[in-house]
Amino acid sequence: MTAKLLTSLTADELHRYKESSLYRNSILSSYQFTDKLLDYYAEYFGSDFKNFSIAVFDDAGEPLIAVYAFSKPPVYAHFGLPVTVHEGVFQEVSQKYKAYKSLFATMNEILETNDFSEIFFYDNDYFTSEYYSKISSTDAEYCSYVNLVQTAEQLKSNLRKSYKSLVNWGEKNLTYVMVDASNQDHTHFTAFKEFHISTAGRKTRSERSWEIQYESLISDEAFLMIGYLSGNIVSGSLIFYGKKEAYYGVGVYDRELMKKNVAIGHYNVFASMLHAKKIGLETFQLGSIPKSSTDQKEVNIFRFKTGFSNTMKVLYRHTAKLKLES
């Protein structure tokens, strides 16, 4: 067994890694680890966040475990979120034990060498065992999602009761344009970008981050649903996706119309769910929130999102302090 930083792989090793079953069937199933989304977050968070992602390989060079972590010391995490462990197929339990042993030997060396004092991770049997004595806090994260393996009628029946008429209004009164790999219309993307800046009241991120998001659209890693009312853009949803999972990443809506209770956003989200289903995805992630959140804006946004689904799952997030105070 050998554990290596992904950044240390040779070109041939990286190519083999990206052709592996672990990468193609597990890691790329999620929107979170596609090339363009990693590029976007790297641009958004800045150069202080370095790639400390690790993979464990068997003696034949086949990857068995991968942990993605773009981190800024002192916290080992993935762009501020808990790290997730990806597992391949193990021939036997003993192989799995050896793989995790190799992972932790390398990871703990990296943590110490780079002066990490905390690690933030989603619940995993082996991680929890390794860092149990150093866990300082555990929080529950509630994730709202839609199971797309249902008919359109079933998806609509799962909407919050008050949303059904709002979705119907949007379908009847708004005109929609989608930008994706099959419709690489930069004019509509530019309109969405300018709408985002106007709604926010300022330019909140770099020009390169916008370029990467457009690249994700034409690379078949995202689609953009834009709603127009009387010829004016009033809503936009940017949806990222992997091989199985979509994510409602960005939602922008005309604030003045929202104050007047004009339903400009509801059908936009629902139409995005239907398109994700159409292209063969299995789940549509609406977002998550810690149960302990005191951010009222965050709570309100989550409340809006949960109206599109009747399913939710809980993830447990652990913080382990590696250097306990004496």
Description:
The two termini are 35 Å apart. The chain has 326 residues and is of the alpha+beta class. The chain is globular and about 60 Å long. It is built from 12 helices and 15 strands.
Features:
12 helices, alpha+beta, globular, 4-stranded antiparallel beta sheet, 9-stranded mixed beta sheet
Helical stretch tally: 12
Low-confidence stretches: none
Total number of strands:
15
Portion in strands: 25-35%
Strands of the biggest beta sheet: in what spatial order?
6-8-15-9-14-13-12-11-10
**Topology pattern, helix = H, strand = E:** EHHHEEEEEEHEHEHHEHHEEEHHEHE
Percent helix, as a range, is: 25-40%
SS-derived structural category: alpha+beta
Gyration radius from CA atoms, angstroms = 21 Å
Label the overall shape. globular
> Strand count, sense and closure of the main sheet?
9 strands, mixed
What is the residue-averaged pLDDT? 94
How many angstroms separate the termini? 35 Å
TL;DR?
The protein is an alpha+beta fold and 326 residues long. The chain is built from twelve helices and 15 strands.
Blueprint of the fold:
Layout (H helix, E strand, L loop, with lengths): L1 E4 L5 H8 L2 H6 L8 H11 L4 E2 L2 E4 L5 E5 L2 E2 L3 E2 L8 E3 L5 H21 L4 E5 L2 H7 L3 E13 L4 H6 L5 H11 L1 E5 L6 H15 L6 H12 L3 E8 L2 E10 L3 E9 L1 H5 L6 H13 L4 E8 L5 H11 L4 E11 L5
Parallel strand pairs: 6-8, 13-14
Antiparallel strand pairs: 1-3, 2-5, 3-4, 4-7, 8-15, 9-14, 9-15, 10-11, 11-12, 12-13
